[in-house]
Amino acid sequence: MIYSKIEGTGKPLLIIHGFLGMSDNWKTIGTQFAADGFQVHLLDLRNHGKSFHSDEFNYEIMAQDVFDYCNANNLEKISILGHSMGGKTAMLFAANHPEMVEKLIVADIGPKFYPQHHQIIFEALNAVDFSLKPSRAEVEEIMSHYITDFGTRQFLLKSLYWKEPGQLAFRFNLAVFNLNRDEIGKPLPEDAVFNKPTLFIRGGNSNYILDDDFPKIQQHFPDSRIETIPNVGHWLHAENPKMFYEMTSLFLK
Questions:
Q1: Active site residues
Q2: What topology is assigned to 4-113+186-252 in CATH?
Q3: What is the pTM of this model?
Q4: pLDDT digit string (tens) for 19-50?
Q5: Domain coordinates in residue numbering, the chain
């Protein structure tokens, strides 16, 4: 069973992080939703955060994990919010189990195919040799040679933890990601459709959802609308949490 943090009481709202992220990335917004009358389930997808590691890694299996999680927790009617890879997992889950989903929110990703674009991040992560028992500062120093953006480094370093005294490791399953890089960009199946209310939110400075993508989004999600948060990139919920929360909570009411 995938790991979760549950907070609040009320209507169930599942929140799913993006690639190389974890439930902790959504703690602040999750707490806001809990205060707003939702029972918030912050999920760690397989091979991420505190969830189990597995050689199987694709959208079908991750959507199935969410289904199994709902069954185990007696969640029959939910709303679901997913960012990036978590957004595509949420899309597939909603299309596969429309009877379970009341509303769907997708943050900065579309249903289309995305070519590989994490090469520099993979180079940085694979450059860290944990057998040399580096300190946290040394891990960041190694990664800084590849990733100049401070925010991106800090996001990745959130998954660094003490596996045992004196031994750091990444929580995510880098070995499996190295073997399955193409899975991240795979499109939603052509026949996947979800007819209930759906909100897509994109970052104004992000290129993940382009104007040209609108027809494809409408094809898969006929009852959808697309909003833009200006002056933010792919991590829109972290860059402008106030506007992100306002948009999502208005849609969920």
A1: 84, 234
A2: Rossmann fold (3.40.50)
A3: 0.96
A4: 999 999 999 999 999 999 999 999 999 999 99
A5: 4-113+186-252, 118-180
